[in-house]
Write a structure and sequence with these properties.
The complex is a heterotrimer of chains A (403), B (239) and C (434). Chain A is an alpha+beta fold. Helices cover 49% and strands 18% of the residues of chain A. Chain A contains eleven helices and twelve strands. In chain A, strands 3-4-10-7-9-8 form a six-stranded mixed β-barrel. In chain A, strands 2-11-1-12 form a four-stranded antiparallel beta sheet. Chain A is elongated, with a radius of gyration of 33 Å. Chain B has a domain of 160 residues: Rossmann fold. In chain B, the strands form two sheets. A six-stranded mixed beta sheet of chain B has the order 6-7-8-3-9-10, with helices on both faces. In chain C, helix 1 packs across helix 13. By secondary structure, chain C is of the alpha+beta class. Chain C has two domains: 167 residues, no CATH class; 226 residues, no CATH class. In chain C, strand 2 and strand 3 form a beta hairpin. The chains are: A alpha+beta (403), B alpha/beta (239), C alpha+beta (434). Chains in contact: A-B, A-C. At the A-C interface, helix 2, strand 1, strand 12 and helix 8 of A face helix 2, strand 2, helix 8 and helix 11 of C.
C-alpha cells in the first residue's frame, strides 16, 4: 500500500490533518469515558433489590387528634389490608429498599464493642414481612407472631431475634454458620439471636457501601402517629388495589391522612432518575459527538477532493483505476484517524485518571480504547466513502483541460 | 504503433450535438515524432484524449500497439494507459505535495512494481532529464522548465511505447521551451514514439511529420522528415 | 465598510449552503451542550443570598464518638444536638442565631371540602425571618418573646395560604394541626429559592417547606424530626432522654455581621465545647466549623458530581465543535486564496482582508449562537424532564442568554482566527499567476 507517499503528502498539509486528528482524539477520549460511565450507571440501575418490585406498594398513614391510638389503629389496619381482595399480604414497615430513607445501625459480635463489626440497615416487620417484601428465606425460619414486639422511636430495645441477609451474615461470620449465633445491635449489651437468613435485601440507600447488609427485626414501630405500610397485591392487580386501599383506609378511620402512596417501581424510578438522566445525557453527547466528527470528516474530505480534482485527474491519466483513487482517500483517512486515535488513546486514559482523582471514579477498563479504535476507524472509513466515491468519478480527461 | 480509422467523437448535451472529430484517420509508426497542429477548437485535445484513452469515442476504430481499444472497460483502459503511454501535460500536473521522487513514483505505484525496481527506474528517469540531484525537492522549488522535465521523467519512468505531449512548452518561456524540445527529440532518437499536440507551428516544424486538424478532420500531411526540421531552425533564430 | 464586509460574508455563506449549515449547526450544538450544562451548574451553585451570604454561618460542633469520626474525612457532623442548640440559643452570642428542624404534620382544614393533608413544617426560632429574609405577602414572622412563650403561632407559605384561605390575608386566623390550633402571624410571598440552602441535609432541591412554627412550640409536640437523625450511642428510653442525648438532628445558623464578630463567636464556641469537655462530652479533639453560605453549599455538594461531569463534558464537546469549525473554515478560506490575492492586488490591506473574513466568521458565530440558544432552551426542557427536582435550576435567565450569545461569537471568532490569519498571508502575486 502507498502509505509513505500519502503520509508525506499529508505532512505538507499538517494543519488540516492535525485538526481532524485532534477531533478524532477528543472524540475517542470522551466517548470511551462516557460509555464507561453509562455502563457503570446501567450496572448500578440493574442491581437487584432482593424484594418483589412489581406487585408491591407503600404508603403512610398519619393519624391526628388526641384520641388517636396508633397501636390499635395499626393492628386494625393490618387486619383490614390483609382481608382486601387482591391483596396477597401486608405488613407495617419503617422503610423499603431504594427509598433513600431509613434506619441504620452497627452490629457487633461482642457486647459494647468499641468499633463496629458491620453496618446494617434496619427493617421492622411482623411475621408477614418476608412474604410481603417477597424475600427468599435460605436458612432458618420466619418470625412467629409471638416474637413481634411493640416499640417506639424513643424506646427501641434490641429484639431477641433477627433475620439477616446472606451478605451481612457472611460479613459477620466469614467462616459460615451464622444461623443461631448471637450479635449485638446499637453498641448495646443485649444479645440478639440470628434465626434466619434471606438471600438478598438491599438497604434503602443506593450509595451505601454496605448495600446488601440488612437486618429484619420483629417489631411494630410507628413513627409518632405515622405508620408506613407495605402491601403486596396479586400479580397484575397492584394499581387497582392501590386505589381500593386508599379509600378503605380513610373509611376505616377518618382522623388520618393517607399519603405518599407509591409503587415500588415508582420508588425505584425516582431513586434512579439521576443515574438514568446521566446515562441519557451522556448517550446524547456521544451521539452528537460522533455525528459532528463524522460530518467534520465528510466536510474536510469533500474539500480535499475539490481541491485535488486536477491531481486526481492526473493520477487517473497516469494509470490509476477508480478503485486506486477510492483507496487513496480511504488510506489517507485511515492514516489521519489512526494518528488521532493514538493521541486519543492517551487522552482517554489521562481523562480516566483525572476522573479517578477528582471524583473517585473507577479505572477505565483497558478494552474500551481498542473497541473505540475499531468504532472510530469504521466511522472514518464510512464518512470518507461519499467524498472518495466522488473523487473516483473524476474523469481522467481532466488532466489535459487547461486551467 | 497507433492507428485510427474513421474515428467519430460526438459530444451531446440535451440541447446540441457537437462533432468534435468526424471521420478522423491517422497512422503513426513506431519511432515516429508526429506533431498534431490546428487552431483552437479544431479537435486537437479531443484527439489527444482519445489517443491517450482518457476519453471514449463514438464510432470508428482505434488500435493502440496492436490492441483494439474499443469497448475496453475503465480498469483495462487504466492499465493500458499506465503500461503503454507516457503523458506530458501543458501545465505539468505535478502533485505539489509530493517531492520529485514521489512524483515520478506515481505511475510506477499503479504498475505494482517492486520497491527496488521503482527506485531504479525513478533514479534513471530523473538522471535522464538531469534532475537526479534534486530528488527530495518539491515542485514549487523548481522553475517551470525543470518542472516539465520532471513530468517528462515521470512519463519515461514506466518505459512507455508512446509518449503523448499536450502543448509541452505552452507554459514555458522560449529558452526553457527549447530545452524541453531538445529533450523530447533526444528521447525520440532513443526509440520512443512521440505524438505532440501544439498550436505552435515552429515547434511542429521540428517534428518528423505534421498532422493538421481543422474542424475535427485531418486535412494535411507533410511526410518528408527533412522538410520539417529546417524551417523551425530558421524561424527560431531571428529572435 | 462593515456593511460591505457583512454583505460579502453573507453572500459567501450562501454560496456553500451545506458547508455553512454544517458550521452553524456544529457551533450551535457545542454551544447548546455547554450552555445547558453550565446553566444548570450556575443556577444550582449560585449564591442564594448574595448580600449577606458571607455573614450567615452554619454551626458545626464535633460531639462524635471517640472511636470514629462522623465523616471519613474527619469533618464534624452536619447537624447539632438539641442540648447544644438550646445552649447556644440561650447564650445568644451571635448577632442573630436560629436552630431549626422540620416536621411532617397533619393539617385539618376547617373547610370541609378539603381533605386533611400532611405538610412540611419548618420549626425554627424567630430570627429565621430576619436572617434568611423571605418576602412577606401579609403580616410578619413571630418575635423572640413569642419564642420564649412557646406561642402557638405559624407563618404560612404562599401555596398553603392559597389552599387553606384562597390566598386572602389570613393573619389572625387559625390553622389546626394534629388537633391543635395555631394563629397565623404572617403569610410569605413567592420565595424563589433555587437551593433550599438553609437546610441541605435532606437534599437541596426537594421538599420545600410549607409553613413555619416556633422552635419551642415544635419541641413541645415531642415528635421526631422528619429530617436526618444520627446517634453514635443509642439514647436511653423516652423523649427527655432523646433531647439529652448526643444524637444530632438540628440545623443551626449564626449571623455574624463582621469578621471580628465571627472571630469572637468562634472563640465562644471553642470555650463552650471546652466547658462541655469538662462534663465528659465532646470526646473528640476540638473541631468546630463555621462555614458561610457558599462554603456550606460547596461542602454539601449542592452542585452534584454528575452536574460537574456533565458541564465538563459539555465544554469538551464545544471544543470538538470548535476544532471542527476551524477545519471547515480553513478549508473554505483556503479555497478563496485566489479571491484574496485579487483583492490584495486591487489594494486591500492585509487588515482589511482580515476584517472581511473575521466578519464572515462572526456571522457564523451569531447564527450558531441564535440556533444554539434555541437548542439550549430545548436542552433545559430535557433536563427538567429528566430531573424532576431541577425545575428551578434548569431555566434560562438573562445572564445566561447573554453569555450564550457572547460565547458563541467568541467561539466562532476563535475558530475563524487561525484560518483568517492563514488566508491573509496569501501574497497578492502568488495567486494571480495561475
Amino acid at each position: 500500500m502507498e502509505f509513505r507517499p500519502i503520509l508525506s503528502a499529508l505532512m505538507r498539509n499538517k494543519v488540516s490533518m492535525v485538526l481532524i486528528g485532534l477531533q478524532v482524539a477528543l472524540t475517542l477520549a470522551i466517548v470511551c469515558n462516557a460509555l464507561f460511565i453509562i455502563s457503570e450507571r446501567l450496572d448500578r440501575m440493574h442491581r437487584p433489590s432482593g424484594m418483589n418490585e412489581t406487585d408491591t406498594f407503600v404508603f403512610n398513614s398519619t393519624g391526628f387528634g388526641q384520641g388517636y391510638d396508633v397501636r390499635s389503629v395499626q393492628q386494625a389496619d393490618l387486619q383490614l389490608l390483609r382481608s382486601l381482595p387482591g391483596v396477597v399480604d401486608a405488613t407495617s414497615v419503617i422503610s423499603v429498599p431504594m427509598s433513600q430513607s431509613g434506619w441504620s445501625t452497627s452490629v457487633n459480635l461482642q457486647p459494647n464493642q468499641a468499633t463496629a463489626t458491620a453496618d446494617t440497615a434496619l427493617y421492622m416487620v411482623d411475621s408477614h414481612g418476608l412474604s410481603t417484601y417477597g424475600l427468599k428465606l435460605v436458612e432458618g425460619r420466619n418470625f412467629t407472631p409471638a416474637e413481634i414486639g411493640f416499640r417506639t422511636v424513643n424506646d427501641r430495645a434490641a429484639p431477641p431475634s433477627v433475620i439477616l441477609t446472606r451478605a451481612l451474615a457472611d460479613r459477620l461470620f466469614p467462616q459460615g454458620g451464622a444461623l443461631g449465633k448471637q450479635v449485638y445491635y446499637d453498641n448495646g449489651s443485649t444479645p440478639t439471636t440470628i434465626i434466619g437468613i434471606v438471600e438478598r435485601m438491599q438497604t434503602p440507600w443506593l450509595d451505601s457501601d454496605y448495600i446488601e447488609n440488612s437486618s429484619l427485626m420483629p417489631a411494630y414501630l410507628p413513627y409518632g402517629n405515622t405508620t408506613p405500610y407495605l402491601v403486596r397485591a396479586e400479580p397484575g392487580r397492584r394499581d387497582e388495589v392501590m386505589k381500593e386501599v386508599e379509600q378503605r383506609m380513610i373509611q376505616a378511620n377518618p382522623s388520618r391522612v393517607i399519603g405518599r402512596m407509591r409503587s415500588i417501581e415508582q420508588v425505584r424510578a425516582v431513586s434512579y432518575a439521576g443515574d438514568r438522566a446521566m446515562a441519557i445525557i451522556l448517550g446524547a453527547v456521544i451521539f452528537a459527538l460522533l455525528a459532528i466528527t463524522a460530518l467534520g470528516i465528510v466536510g474536510m474530505a469533500s474539500f480535499w477532493v475539490a481541491q485535488r480534482t486536477r491531481q486526481i485527474g492526473t493520477r487517473r491519466a497516469l494509470g490509476a483505476t477508480r478503485f486506486d483513487i477510492l483507496r487513496y482517500f480511504h488510506t489517507e483517512n485511515f492514516i489521519i484517524t489512526t494518528l488521532g486515535l493514538l493521541l486519543g488513546g492517551v487522552l482517554a486514559y489521562a481523562l480516566s485518571l483525572w476522573l479517578m482523582q477528582q471524583y473517585q471514579a473507577p479505572r477505565l477498563p483497558w478494552y474500551y480504547v481498542p473497541v473505540g479504535f475499531v468504532c472510530l476507524w469504521a466511522l472514518g472509513q464510512l464518512a470518507v466513502l461519499g467524498p472518495a466515491l466522488r473523487a473516483s468519478r473524476v474523469p481522467p480527461a481532466l488532466a489535459t483541460r487547461s486551467v | 504503433m497507433l492507428s485510427m480509422n474513421h474515428l467519430q467523437k460526438v459530444y451531446r448535451t440535451h440541447l446540441i450535438e457537437t462533432h468534435a472529430l468526424r471521420d478522423f484517420s491517422i497512422h503513426v509508426d513506431e519511432g515516429e515524432f508526429v506533431a498534431v497542429t490546428g487552431p483552437s477548437g479544431s479537435g486537437k485535445t479531443t484527439f489527444l484524449n482519445i489517443c491517450g484513452l482518457l476519453e471514449e469515442f463514438s464510432g470508428g476504430e482505434y488500435q493502440l500497439d496492436g490492441v483494439d481499444v474499443r469497448g475496453l472497460g475503465d480498469n483495462a483502459r487504466s492499465r493500458l494507459r499506465n503500461e503503454k503511454i507516457g503523458f506530458i501535460f501543458q501545465s505539468f500536473n505535478l502533485i505539489p505535495d509530493l517531492n520529485l521522487f514521489d512524483n515520478v513514483d506515481v505511475p510506477l505505484r499503479y504498475r505494482r512494481f517492486a520497491a527496488a525496481e521503482r527506485k531504479r527506474r525513478i533514479e534513471d528517469a530523473l538522471a535522464r532529464v538531469g534532475l537526479a540531484s534534486r530528488m527530495k525537492h518539491y515542485p514549487s522549488e523548481l522553475s517551470g522548465g525543470q518542472q516539465q522535465r520532471v513530468a517528462i521523467a515521470r512519463a519515461l519512468a514506466g518505459s512507455p511505447r508512446l509518449l503523448l505531449a499536450d502543448e509541452p512548452t505552452g507554459n514555458l518561456d522560449s529558452l526553457m521551451a527549447r530545452g524541453v524540445m531538445e529533450l523530447l527529440e533526444e528521447i525520440n532518437r532513443q526509440g520512443t514514439t512521440i505524438v505532440m499536440v501544439t498550436h505552435d507551428p515552429e515547434l511542429a516544424a521540428r517534428a518528423q511529420r505534421n498532422v493538421h486538424v481543422i474542424d475535427g478532420q485531418v486535412t494535411d500531411f507533410s511526410a518528408e522528415p527533412d522538410l520539417g526540421q529546417h524551417p523551425a531552425v530558421t524561424t527560431a533564430m531571428p529572435a | 465598510m462593515f456593511a460591505y464586509y457583512l454583505q460579502l460574508g453573507l453572500r459567501s455563506l450562501k454560496r456553500n449552503p451545506i458547508l455553512t449549515a454544517l458550521m452553524v449547526v456544529g457551533i450551535a450544538l457545542g454551544i447548546a451542550a455547554s450552555m445547558t450544562t453550565l446553566t444548570v451548574m450556575h443556577l444550582m451553585g449560585s449564591d442564594p443570598i448574595p448580600w449577606k451570604s458571607d455573614k450567615l454561618h452554619y454551626v458545626q460542633l464535633d460531639n462524635w464518638s471517640p472511636d470514629q469520626p462522623y465523616n471519613d474525612d474527619g469533618s464534624p457532623p452536619d447537624q447539632v444536638t438539641y442540648r447544644d442548640a438550646v445552649a447556644l440559643m440561650a447564650a445568644a452570642r451571635a448577632d442573630r442565631q436560629v436552630a431549626m428542624f422540620k416536621l411532617a404534620l397533619p393539617i385539618q382544614p376547617t373547610n370541609p371540602e378539603l381533605k386533611p393533608f400532611r405538610a412540611l413544617v419548618r420549626v425554627a426560632g424567630a430570627d429565621f425571618f430576619p436572617m434568611f429574609e423571605p418576602p412577606f405577602q401579609y403580616g410578619s414572622g413571630w418575635d423572640r418573646r413569642q419564642d420564649g412563650e412557646h406561642a402557638r403561632v405559624v407563618v404560612l407559605g404562599k401555596a398553603i395560604n392559597e389552599k387553606l384561605f384562597g390566598g386572602q390575608d389570613s393573619v389572625g386566623k387559625t390553622v389546626r394541626m394534629d388537633g391543635v390550633d395555631y394563629t397565623v402571624t404572617g403569610v410569605l410571598d413567592d420565595w424563589h429559592l433555587r437551593a433550599k440552602y438553609y437546610d441541605l441535609t435532606g437534599g437541596a432541591f426537594t421538599d420545600p417547606d410549607e409553613l413555619y412554627m416556633p422552635f419551642t412550640t415544635g419541641i413541645d409536640l415531642k415528635q421526631r424530626a422528619s429530617g436526618n437523625n444520627s446517634c453514635w450511642s443509642a439514647p436511653a428510653s423516652g423523649w427527655e432522654a432523646y433531647l439529652d442525648s448526643d444524637c444530632v438532628w438540628i440545623q443551626m445558623w449564626a449571623e455574624l455581621d463582621s469578621p471580628a464578630r465571627l472571630a469572637e463567636f468562634k472563640a465562644f464556641l471553642d470555650s463552650y465545647v471546652n466547658e462541655q469537655k469538662k462534663l465528659g462530652r465532646f470526646p473528640r479533639p476540638l473541631n468546630n466549623r463555621l462555614l458561610d453560605v457558599n462554603e456550606w453549599m460547596a461542602d454539601q455538594r449542592v452542585v452534584s458530581r454528575d452536574v460537574q461531569v456533565q458541564t465538563g463534558l459539555g465544554f469538551a464537546f464545544l471544543l470538538v465543535c470548535l476544532v471542527n469549525t476551524i477545519g471547515l473554515l480553513l478549508a473554505k478560506f483556503t479555497r478563496k486564496a485566489g479571491e484574496i490575492g485579487l483583492r490584495r492586488a486591487l489594494g486591500a490591506s492585509r487588515r482589511e482582508v482580515f476584517t472581511q473574513f473575521l466578519v464572515e466568521s462572526g456571522v457564523i458565530g451569531i447564527s450558531g449562537g441564535v440556533l444554539g440558544l434555541a437548542l439550549t432552551a430545548l436542552g433545559l426542557l430535557a433536563v427538567r424532564a429528566l430531573y424532576s427536582e431541577y425545575q428551578t435550576v434548569a431555566a434560562l435567565d438573562w445572564m445566561m442568554v447573554a453569555a450564550t450569545i457572547v460565547l458563541s461569537i467568541v467561539a466562532a471568532l476563535l475558530a475563524g482566527l487561525y484560518p483568517t490569519w492563514r488566508a491573509c498571508r496569501v501574497q497578492p502575486a502568488a495567486q494571480l499567476k495561475i
